[in-house]
Design brief:
By secondary structure, this protein is α/β, with parallel strands linked by helices. The chain has a single domain, classed as Aldolase class I (TIM Barrel, Alpha-Beta Barrel), CATH 3.20.20. The protein is 25% helix and 25% strand. It is built from 6 helices and 9 strands. Strands 3-1-2-4-5-6-7-8-9 form a 9-stranded mixed sheet. It is globular, with a radius of gyration of 16 Å. The two termini are 28 Å apart.
């Protein structure tokens, strides 16, 4: 595994609208990095788990593609992107005033410089404690009613300005969404996050 961040296992990159959480509907360039050992049973990007099947791409090339897209913001996702050193990538983007967002389980130590950190904690591999205090957004996937307790655990660990979202697991959307609605009506600090990109049939 390259530890200087000059090469990254690129699964895919594309310019689209953000589909989840606080920034839903905003245009952003997505960079999906390969590698994940968290292993969520309901993961919708399993194709990204094995970093060895994805090409190691120069971070400079990725930055050039970002600039050519005309975007003003980038979302780095995975897989679990923090398995890799993201300092070089972020520094390169910041030279051009590109806003940097990350979607992470928080299972690995933070690297990179971020305008927005979306923490989506997973029970298989809980987040490192340090990331909780700097998260801008807490997005917890709700598969069944037991996940509400998990969500509340991390609500207590994030900072007071962190935005709080509960997101129905896609395959159980019809079953779990009414439970989320009822939960938020009682616990009003939370908001619901829907995977809008799946309804729009866009990446």
């Amino acid at each position: 595994m390259a530890d200087d961040g000059l090469l990254l296992p690129l699964v895919e990159e594309f310019y689209t609208l953000q589909g989840e959480g606080y920034h839903t509907g905003r245009a952003a360039y997505f960079i999906r990095i390969g590698g994940c050992d968290v292993g969520c049973s309901w993961c919708d990007s399993r194709f990204s788990w094995n970093s060895s099947i994805h090409p190691m791409v120069e971070a400079d090339s990725i930055i050039e593609n970002v600039l050519n897209s005309g975007t003003d913001s980038v979302v780095v996702t995975g897989g679990e992107p923090l398995m890799w050193n993201l300092d070089y990538l972020c520094n390169g983007l910041k030279k051009y005033n590109i806003k940097t967002y990350i979607e992470t389980s928080g299972a690995y130590n933070l690297s990179g410089t971020w305008d927005w950190i979306c923490l989506s904690p997973k029970q298989n591999m809980p987040p490192v404690v340090a990331i909780c205090s700097v998260a801008d957004e807490l997005k917890v996937i709700i598969q069944d009613s037991r996940d509400f307790e998990w969500a509340e655990k991390y609500r207590k660990l994030v900072n007071s300005d962190c935005r709080l979202f509960l997101q129905p697991e896609w395959s159980r959307f019809d079953k779990i969404t009414p439970e989320i609605v009822d939960y938020i009506k009682i616990n009003q600090g939370w908001r619901i996050s829907l995977q809008a990109h799946k309804y729009m049939h866009i990446p």
